[in-house]
Design goal:
heterodimer, A: 2 domains, two-stranded antiparallel sheet, elongated, B: 316 residues, Arginase, Chain A, eight-stranded parallel β-sheet
Chain lengths: 233, 316
Amino acid sequence: MFVSRSMTRRVVTIGPEASIFEVQELMAQNRIRHIPVVEEGDKLVGIVSDRDLRSALPFRYLKEGVSPEEQERLQRLRVKDIMTREVFTISPAYTIQDALLMIQNSKVGALPVVDEDGRLKGILSVRDLLRAFINVLGIGQPGTLLCILVEEKLGQLKKIVDAITEMGVGFGSVLVARYWEEDKRAVFPYLLTQNVAQVKKKLQAMGYTLLDPMQWYLDQLPEEDRPPDKPKP
Amino acid sequence: MKRTGFLYDERYLLHKTGPYHPEVPERLTAIYEGIDQGGLLEKLIRIPAALAEPQWILNIHTAEYVKRFEAACRTGKQMFDSPDNQMCAQTYEIALLAVGGILEACRQVMEGRLDNAFCAVRPPGHHAEVSRAMGFCYFNNVAIAARYIQKQFGCTRVGIVDFDVHHGNGTQHIFEDDPTVYYYSIHQHPSFAYPGTGREFEYGRGDGYGFTKNSPVLPGQGDEDYRRLLERDLFPAFGDYKPEAIIVSAGFDGHRDDDMSDTKLSTEFYTWMMQQIVDMANTHSRGRLVSVLEGGYCLNRLPELAHHHVEILLNG
């Protein structure tokens, strides 16, 4: 659950005095988009992203090349000239949830992981969070997803889990989606079986509503697409 | 009329699965009875089942896996690798009999003694991985068959069409880096169906990149959607590839009355689809086609589906 477990430890870094072409090459070689800038002792002083790089290079450079004078000027550009100095960082002791919320709020693609002394310990990118999310969903292993609409009251999940467990079917994950209809939750059990027809029949016999797969959503709908709340009785 | 082989053996009924299990022996008897209707059975050339020689199995599965499977059966285990794989003491031997019968069908088709064949076997195979049983499958029947055809008859291009409603993860993984076998599958979208693979962006890897193709179908979709995808994805791909033989993973579980899926195919659509596949075999593969049963669980529909399937093979 901690950032230290999910971060990439072997970080590609660069010094502030390196040329921007070195950055370009490092990014291409390692297929990454964020490189922390460190001084001696792994002290973080900035971060340079592919976007910083693109803003520094004139459009003509990529398209048709530039004049020798322009080329020379670009050669002289250092990492420290284009990097972001006010870096959003995260502590290794933070959690994945912290990281998800921080990335959502800061709108950055990666967070350097820095200890109390400001030393770089790793980097946590959107890619690392995706990997964690794929793991949580359980979709790396064979199974079938169902979606059960339940009333929001205590004990619903227990009944569902018990009923499925009694059939000898294992769970890859169970997600509960909110922002569904008012007073309702959608429960998504990812079942490690091909044999779901029997499970569906049993749940229906227990009075549960199985949602049409084309109506499933895991995400909170954007404000403008959300159905108006039902008036309270 | 073509010389169509038919593989069926009563011993295939001896593989017993547990309670709540849809992969039951009655599936095969339903298929047999359907084919027996209207005198179709007399027009078919029966293929004898025989135990497969281990070398052909070992071309696909690891020796460790085969041993483990055999030992599990011998020691009376009722489950192997996954709770989906319910079995009995005979399962190992029956799985060997299924493979052996299919290889005999392949041999006769490749030697020109038969034009094509339908193999009504249990257990099914397309989910079986190199060293893991899953999704009711133990030996990957069609993968073993494809390699057999290649090694024994020197084919450099074998095409597999898998229209079971579930993705054939095993078959895809076995051949994903191999350009000498083209794997095409059309199935319910992996986000909504077992086993969760077979996404549209899976094209194979390494040398095999471009020789795997998947057409996922959304829940609720039916004949027209399938037709559109086959015309867009399968027909042009096999037109370019020109397989020397076609193996079909024939699963009938996408039928609207089959409760193992949310797709809505009609019986007529299965007929149309099989006719197209046979036409492809006639055009590119000198008619050489071996169809192998995978899924299909609606006992009321299997008779008619199997009947039409075989009728198309006979009429070519």
